[in-house]
Amino acid sequence: MTKPDPRSDRSEACDSPDITGDRYHVETWGCQMNVHDSEKLAGALESVGYRKAAGRHDADVILLNTCSIREKAAEKVFSEIGRLLPLKRKNPRLIVGLCGCVAQQEGEAIFARAPLIDFVMGPRATASLPRTLERLRAGDPSAHRTVDTEYREDSIRFPFDSIRRESPETGKAYVTIIEGCNHRCTYCIVPTTRGREVCRPLADVLAEVRSLGQKGICEVEFLGQTVNAYRDDEGNTLAELLRATAKIDDIARIRFTTSHPAQMTDKLMDAMQASRPSLCPYLHLPVQSGSSAVLERMRRGYDRETYLAKIGNLRQRIPEMLFGTDVIVGFPGETEEEFEQTLQLLDEVPFDTVYSFTYSERPGTRALDFGDDVPLAVKMERLRRLQARQREIQRGRNLMWIGRQVELLVEGCSKRDATRWTGRTPDHRIVHFAGDSAPGEFVLVEITAATPYSLVGRQCATEKNSRVTKKGSLDEAHRASSA
Question: Are residues 377 and 235 part of one domain?
């Protein structure tokens, strides 16, 4: 099949007539990439006249943007679809589309399991959305139960000025630089749902970042399934992107996720060091297991010693760097000794955040051939032990912050206490604090208490009415408090 030109798809979408009065609602499962994909879906709809609905009950179009990285995540989507049936009966105009990775994975089979779904669209077919809806609205019989799961470049080439940013007032924005993955980890479905790697030109990424800075965004987070594999057609890598972004005055903070240890090169580490203080001292570097034997069965491309060497090399360059990771417990063949090696790794690094999960079989992955031979009860017991150990590590590390002053970028009101604000430190810690502030501002906060998952503090008085807004203005205070 001939690969469509994504630019022609985009042009066709933009020529669609306005749909005055119709309202849309997007629900998202999964990672930052899925969240940003939903911002693109919303932008595509608003470009042809749709307006954001107050919620699903107020919508004429509902899009379910899904994640299939784990079996439980995919099953949640189908449970949610059943709850939409009363809305479908109440509003005959309601169109429901299943988008994202579950759509890519299941394709036409979705209609048998969820008959109320009107169309299915994979994560790399964003540009077809307005045209699909137009055909459905016009009563085109060929549009009903449309499946578009081609691996195009729609999402990576989506016009950034059309993205509907969900919370620009926070001063933060996601920027996709690479999509897809060329690794073949035996447990992972991402190469199936997202396709092979495709990268944006460096100039296009920097144009988006500058545009965001001019609109008041002060923190950007570069996204990709393997973000540090980024390399455009001219040979520019993430190293060049970091160095160039660090020179943009409007951007105070730079993050990137998710990285693969195999692409954490000396060149990239040098660029990370050179990009401080704009580059935030936090890196999410999934290890998946502390056992070299398990890593080999996972086909991760590194062993325990190589991973630890990468951590050590980064800390030599950036001593204040903190780390987060992902861990899978109960991978096929995992012995108690191999699991214990993962527990030991938590102590050896140690990590400030760990996202941990039990292994679940995913369709089309090579690990299916191994057999899911670790009993569920054993998996759950190991997961509990790992999470309990990590909770104690995080508790101890967070307690060390009591009495220090930290720089925060305010995100909004605390979800647990409306009288407090929530912000995030450069090293990714969540802080709830009392003070006079607003989303998108930098403030200085003294830490007064700590839990394993967040810090509590009070806002410090500064010369600028307790608010700091300029890039780098808190660097000296932050370094002194972190010493």
Answer: yes
Q: How far apart are CA 172 and CA 464, in angstroms?
A: 22
Which residues, in sequence order, are CB contacts of 284 under 8 Å at separation 6+?
A: 257, 258, 259, 323, 324, 325, 326, 353
Instruction: Supply the range of the domain harboring residue 199.
Output: 160-398
Angle between helices 336-348 and 376-399 (to 10 degrees): 10
Tracing tokens 């609602």 back to the chain, one arrives at 25
398 C-beta neighbours (distance < 10 Å), count? 20
In this structure, the answer to whether residues 244 and 169 fall within a common structural domain is yes
Rounded Cα distance, 50 and 34, in Å: 21
Q: Which amino acid does the sequence have at 442?
A: F
Tokens coding 37: 């994909």
Order of strands across the sheet with 253-257?
A: 172-176, 219-223, 253-257
3-state secondary structure of 341: helix
pTM score = 0.90
d(CA 350, CA 455): 18
Distance CA 196, CA 298 (A): 19
Question: What whole-number distance in Å separates Cα of residue 95 and Cα of residue 144?
Answer: 10
CATH code for the domain of 107: 3.40.50.12160
Q: What is the mean pLDDT of each run of 10 residues along the chain (483 residues)?
A: 32 40 92 95 95 95 92 82 92 95 94 95 93 93 91 92 95 97 96 95 98 97 98 98 98 98 98 98 98 98 98 98 98 98 98 97 95 97 98 98 97 90 97 94 97 96 48 41 39
129 HSE (CA, 13 A, CB side):
36
Same domain, 196 and 217: yes
440: left (phi over 0), alpha (psi -120 to 50) or beta: left
Going through 279-400 in order, the beta strands assigned E by DSSP cover 282-284, 322-329, 353-358
Are 223 and 174 contacting, i.e. CB atoms less than 8 angstroms apart? yes
Residue 240 and residue 311 share a domain: yes
Q: Are residues 285 and 427 in the same domain?
A: no
State the helix-helix crossing angle for 238-245 and 202-214, rounded to 10 degrees.
30
H or E segment and range at residue 8: helix 6-14
In the chain, the number of structural domains is: 3
204 & 351 share domain: yes
